[in-house]
Protein: Phosphoacetylglucosamine mutase
Amino acid sequence: MAQWQEVSEKSKLHPKPVGLVLQYGTAGFRTNADHLDHVMFRMGLLATLRSINTKAIIGVMVTASHNPEEDNGVKLIDPMGEMLTPAWEVYATQLANAEQDHLITVLKDLVQKESIDLTNQEAEVFVGRDTRSSSARLSDAVLDGVTALDGRSKDYGLVTTPQLHYMVCCCNTRGGYGKASVEGYYSKLSQAFIQLTKSAPNRTDDQKCLLVDGANGIGALKLREMEPYLQGALKVSLFCDGTGGKLNHQCGADFVKVQQNSPKGINRCCSFDGDADRIVYYYSDDHGRFHLLDGDKIATLISTFLKELLTKAGLDLKIAVVQTAYANGSSTRYLEDTMKVIVRCAKTGVKHLHHVAQEFDIGVYFEANGHGTVLFSKAAEEKIQQLCDDSEGERQGAATLLKNSVDLINQTVGDAISDMLLIEAILAIKGMTVQQWDAIYTDLPNRQLKVKVSDRRVIDTKDAERKTVSPAGLQEAIDRLVERHQDGRSFVRPSGTEDVVRVYSEAATQVTRLLNHLYLNQPLH
Ligand code: NG1
Ligand code: ZN
Structure:
């Protein structure tokens, strides 16, 4: 077939380095930008086939998120704005690793397995990219892949990851989710934010101003574009805005979360990551001590707010919070015991959390690192709308706040800009300072580190990665250590994005055994 001939010819312009093996991991492909040209071309091909297969628009985002500037990566977006379905992740890996002379065979196999009819089929792919210097040429390679299979493409250029998810969802729902343009995105979110904050008419200037660390990336650029739409309802002071510093270097959500340190000594502030799908908040207290409000604190604030509104509105909707093993034990305890909300634990990676959150009327999901959002079931959205129309007084007020929250939230994926606006609105409506928010519960002291081992795949886990099943004896050894500490909890798991094993532990105190031995006369063993 002439089509395969063309793909074969064009693929020679994007040659695969012989022997290079990559995997479509937790967040797509990620590695040094110099090794990705062939992967991008092939993901253009894959997205086109997926588009024919689903009869819908598919998205391709070129970014390596919080990784260093030298890296890059790519992830595919499925029709409703969600992450690529797992079965196709396997195809993505096969396609990326096929040696040059096997590429067509692998493609034909896929076409056959998925019964894709290549004759007279329309395909459309949306492409977006972050601000990395390599991203423009790599997104051109994606576009080449789409063209090679006669697909149509729309290049959105520089956009945040969540913005591209939003575009895909808007178009596939024929405008049902919003207008598929950056202006549409800014208008929808800004209007919802302005409506929400009308419920807090006495906001002080202090409450209206927020410092934002843009990680020297796309989030900074887009937030600046969005400011006029907010009509002064939020005054953003951007730093690490890409005008001087390097992407994600000593700034951004991952740096702040992992180093537990702020890029500057500051009051209420938040940090995005390199593609603006993560956010963390923080402040320094009077003693200059740094306080982090991570994804767990964000999930707590949002779920508390929503639950209170449900009660006021008299709406009987099932709300749950979905976390991962990295959620601080204090947050889980507070949510279950004090807030009385259902808490579920999912495997690391937002696609797993997203999936679990879909089981509830309202599913709030956040990874501790600040990646998350809220999902509302169709039925929940309809009930909220109905109450807005049919009720009055306090019930209608609560229903309207819920409706505006739905509009402000990007339900397709975690979105730093949308999350930030929601948090700012909640703080304003509740008249809460960042310090009061922080005081809802106190994090258990915790540590996270990574260990290089020769083969991380020897570690196998169960129970949402909280227990190991192999190698033999490892779990027992962890259990023996953990049981010696009050509120102790620890787990190890192989990373899905780096060639390392991650180790996490937390306990009621961080006093070392040596100090216990010296001062409390406890045994050292
Ligand atoms: P891995 O490398 O599998 O731990 C990391 C993050 C995830 C998620 C992905 C994708 C931690 C401990 N892990 O996954 O939460 O965000 O990257 O970016 O932060
Ligand atoms: Zn990211």
